[in-house]
Amino acid sequence: MPKQKTHSGAKKRFKITGSGKLMKQQAGMRHNLEGKASKRKRRLNGEQVLAPGDAKAAKKQLGL
Predict the structure, then answer these.
(1) Given a cut of 90, is residue 64 above it in pLDDT?
(2) pLDDT band per the 50, 70, 90 thresholds, residue 54
(3) What is the pLDDT of residues 21-33, one digit of tens each?
(4) Does some domain include residue 3?
């Protein structure tokens, strides 16, 4: 049986931590940045842990 291929979109979007959690980039930093407060932009710029329900599907796409 052939090997399972990693979902190329998922591997660009998620990063696995040492403990096995999945990190994602926060949404909302693509456009209209002048209208957002600096405090909000700093908060959005960080990475965030993926929700458990989403993490299950993402791990399957990554072949974990």
Answers:
(1) no
(2) very high
(3) 999 999 999 999 9
(4) no
CA distance linking residue 49 with residue 4, whole number of Å: 25
Q: Decide if 40 is inside a domain.
A: yes
Q: Quote the pLDDT of residue 10.
A: 95
Residue 1 lies in a domain: no
Nearest-angstrom CA–CA distance, 32 and 62: 32
- Residue 52 sits at φ, ψ, to 5 deg, of -55, -40
Can you name the residues that pair with 16 across neighbouring β-strands? 22
The answer for residues whose C-beta is within 8 angstroms of residue 2's C-beta and 6 or more apart is none
Return the CATH number at 57: 4.10.410.60
